[in-house]
Write a structure and sequence with these properties.
Elements (H helix, E strand, L loop, with lengths): L1 H12 L8 H13 L8 H9 L3 H15 L1
Helix pairs in contact: 2-4, 3-4
């Protein structure tokens, strides 16, 4: 699920995943959060691996997404 979503965003933006900037990665986390992806066990390490960022960075982005929703 995550890889497909990331690939779709990559194609839509016309940017390969390894060239994603911080905003692109944040948007990816936001889309996955809205879809309920982070309710799954092991979601954070998986998306960290796909986006080539650390797990603490994923958690920080998630914190910002949740704050934005409130």
């Amino acid at each position: 699920m995550a890889e497909n979503t990331v690939l779709e965003l990559s194609v839509a933006k016309g940017i390969p995943v390894d060239k994603f900037k911080q905003d692109d990665k944040f948007e990816t986390i936001e889309v996955l959060y809205d879809s309920g992806f982070f309710l799954l066990k092991g979601a954070v390490p998986e998306i960290a691996r796909i986006l080539k960022i650390s797990e603490p960075t994923v958690y920080r982005y998630l914190q910002n997404v949740k704050a934005k929703d409130q």
